[in-house]
Amino acid sequence: MAEIQPHAASLPRSESKIYNMDVENKGEEEKNDEKDYTQRAQWLRAAVLGANDGLLSTASLMMGIGAVNKDVKTMILTGIVGLVAGACSMAIGEFVSVFSQYDIEFSQMKRQGNTSQKDKLPNPYYAAFASAVAFAVGALVPLLGAAFVKDYKVRLGVVVGVVSVALFGFGLLSGFLGKAPLVKSSFRVLIGGWLAMSLTFGLTKLVNHVGV
Fold first, then answer.
1. pTM (2 decimals)?
2. Residue 44 near residue 177, CB atoms below 8 Å
């Protein structure tokens, strides 16, 4: 049989007070758990988006240089430059953004006289490190895909293939974290990635053809 919860009004005053306190504490714990879960989901989503950015921007750079140069070393060096530059850019941008948020929230705490909650504020150093690592992880996918293939056409195909699989996976994960339709989210990310790589490849080839 299901357990019947007593109503506060049917209890003696002392027991009713304890019962209400238990209910309030339980509600507060649920709110804190929900807040912690939301924060973790936001960080994970940011990491997924950072990895997706590293994957797509590095792959597009490699496809762009591959449109005008068939040398594998040149393509790999281009990818490495994209990885380093992108990771540094992501780290600095996230550091400045989160530090600004930190200053605003800490100032609000000082006005309220509640600086004991300082440890719950976002950490700009952690955010910068996490963004740089996420970007670098994504950028490694096309680099590893191209590193061991000498044939030019096969190399381009491998890069497109591994990037497509990774984009589809990131789309699934993003859709799951955002509680969006998984297949639709995945194909949206995948088609966007194909478009970015195609435009970079085609426009670079066009610029090289006209001799600009």
1. 0.73
2. yes
